[in-house]
Amino acid sequence: MTLASQAFKGLLRRPDLIQSQGYIGGRWLNALSGKTYTIIDPSLDAPLADVAAMTADDTNVAIEAADEAFQQWRNTTPNHRAAILQKWDRLLRENEADLGLIMSKESGKPIAEAIGEVSYAADYLKFFGHECLRYEGFMIPSHAHGRKMMAIRQPVGVCAMITPWNFPIGMLARKVGPALAAGCTAVVKPAESTPLSALAFAKLGEEAGVPAGVMNIVPSAREAASEIGRTLSVTPTVRKLTFTGSTVVGKILTEQCASTLKKVSMELGGLAPFIVFDDADIPAAVEGLVQAKFRNTGQTCVCPNRVYVQAGSFDEFSKQLVKRVSELKQGVAHQRGFDLGPLINSGAVEKLTAVVEEAIELGAKPLLGATKNPLGPAYMTPTILTNISTNMRVAKEECFGPIVALQKFETEEEVLKAANNTEMGLAAYAFTQDLGRAWRMSEQLEAGMVGLNVGLISAVQAPFGGIKQSGLGREGSIIGMDDYTELKYVCMGGLA
Ligand SMILES: NC(=O)c1ccc[n+]([C@@H]2O[C@H](COP(=O)([O-])OP(=O)(O)OC[C@H]3O[C@@H](n4cnc5c(N)ncnc54)[C@H](O)[C@@H]3O)[C@@H](O)[C@H]2O)c1
Ligand SMILES: O=CCCC(=O)O
């Protein structure tokens, strides 16, 4: 019995969704080296599965498979591609309980959220399964008699996709959906901690009729990430690279891709400000912050990282927030009834604990938490700090975990300046009942996405992405296929 079949014994309706080999050219394969690596269930701090440890050699095979498949896939009709994406959408929904459980066990995402993410991922397949039916070029008024001018959309080719662990299926679907809809093929390197979700996603894609080579998955250990990233970046047949992850890695990949002048899309880190004005509905702002900050136990790129509350509401807001956060239940992610799970691993807890301790040494006061968590090494106690100063890391670095650092402000001008005083610009939030102020915030906050009186902003219909060092390009929405196509100008003469 394998490690994975033991760990999932009796838990899945479809045990065959657990795949531990890579998926290349329509075949389930061991790594060429024969090596595997072990992934961990962070809730239980226990080994979960042994997965093929693929490397650059396997990646090259996957690129060749994707390139070969592209020659046929690019010529399929949008109706054909739409039917496959729509079937895949249905299969994801039919298997949401199993997929949610797999994701929850390997990432520590609370089970209800994990099942919600499966539905979010399916929405991307459905959306682009429809979108490709109406995606069109345009006619151009001709500048000369006897000529017709037009612009047509064509798939860019083989697309490399590197995805993070915090949304192991959602981020994959947000890339694979529009890419396949446009007629591109894909080579995916999932995050090392969460390959099982990506492989189960591929298994259902195979069942939906995605042809061999159109989507390839190369699981790998952390040690191979940079060589695989480099291979994907420098190989000329790969025409686009799309990455979701940290800004540090995004910059390395962008630089590497310059050597072959690939198209790149970068969905990178955030440092979202969350601003509560005195004129806000305070209970709604508290609820908005809890939803935005504690989603996936504080590990989403759009989580608020700097919370600014206007002086007149500071005490009341803090009191209500402490009460609300104290009510959140934390425990084993794949068991029902918990709002918070562990972090991705014990290393993340150690890193954040050091950030909290440093803040306290520099004068921060804990209103809640800041204590060792008895549940296990990967669990972080929800923590609320006040008396924050801007030299503390908690106020200037992305803290991927359940930590809220509350800062007080006096004026709109002051808070806007503080909120924009960063190189990051992914999401921003403001709570106010003054329409003029809400409008000023939406225009003046330097971010790719702004939530006004709302903490949850992600939706397949919305263009997702950041400005400044939070990224390049947008994913999802009606422009989501643009980055997977080239616009070709055609001028036809001799028609007079
Ligand atoms: N903007 C967004 O849409 C978005 C979404 C999710 C996460 N994120 C960001 O991702 C970060 C957290 O995820 P993470 O810790 O997994 O990030 P990460 O950058 O360490 O890893 C992301 C992916 O990159 C791979 N990787 C690591 N080093 C690499 C290299 N040198 N070359 C190629 N690939 C490499 C990893 O194996 C993983 O697949 C946060 O900063 C978060 O804000 C952004
Ligand atoms: O982590 C960032 C992406 C999550 C989302 O789509 O809201």
TrEMBL record:
PANTHER family: SUCCINATE-SEMIALDEHYDE DEHYDROGENASE, MITOCHONDRIAL. Belongs to the aldehyde dehydrogenase family. One of its GO terms (molecular function) is succinate-semialdehyde dehydrogenase (NAD+) activity. The active site is at E267. It holds the Pfam family Aldedh. The keyword Oxidoreductase applies. Pathway: Amino-acid degradation; 4-aminobutanoate degradation. It is an enzyme of class 1 (oxidoreductase). InterPro entries: Ald_DH/histidinol_DH, Ald_DH_C, Ald_DH_CS_CYS, Ald_DH_CS_GLU, Ald_DH_N, Aldehyde_DH_dom, Aldehyde_DH_Superfamily. Keywords: Oxidoreductase. One of its GO terms (biological process) is gamma-aminobutyric acid catabolic process. Residues 28-490 form the Aldehyde dehydrogenase domain. Gene3D superfamilies: Aldehyde Dehydrogenase, Chain A, domain 1, Aldehyde Dehydrogenase, Chain A, domain 2. Its EC number is 1.2.1.24. This is Succinate-semialdehyde dehydrogenase, mitochondrial.
